Amino acid sequence: MSVHSAYDGDPASDPQEFRRCLGQFATGVTVVTAQVDGEMVGLTVNSFASVSLDPPLVLWSIGESSKSYAKFNAAEHFTINVLAHDQIALSRHFGRSGPDKFSGIAWSTGVTGAPVLDGVAAFFECSRHSAHRGGDHLILIGQVRRAVHFDRGTLLFAQGRYRIATDHPAEAQAARAAS
Length: 179
Description:
Strand order of the largest sheet: 3-2-6-9-10-5-4
Largest sheet: 7 strands, antiparallel
Oligomer: single chain
Order of helices and strands: HEEEEEHEHEEEEEEH
């Protein structure tokens, strides 16, 4: 049996196909927020990942072409807000450029001073641990100072579309077999 790939090539020569390949990996959707020099900044990000449990570290990255790059590069604290399944509009809102992204958005000030968005599935309040250059991105590693989660489904993004997480049918079969 022969398996044919939809794409097989050099990602440097075809960035669009590379992006499609990356889209095969489902990610959660987050909005990273900070307050720098009295100005609040927020950005939709799917590059969030855990790094370490001891100490508690997480990472995310921002492109140097982002209008928010300078603010996040200077931020000593930030909050990673994990969006709930019903927050597509919030993802799109913070995914666009524009002034005062927090106008009309429900949020509160977290323990580090960075905004915490209302209705999220979880949030991580972080102090900047380190930053590293990676190609055209800055990878920010944060030490988690406070972690909170709620009983809400999470918003996912895969293959260029928003998705929600549901149990795989094999999980239900395994649960029935175990009982």
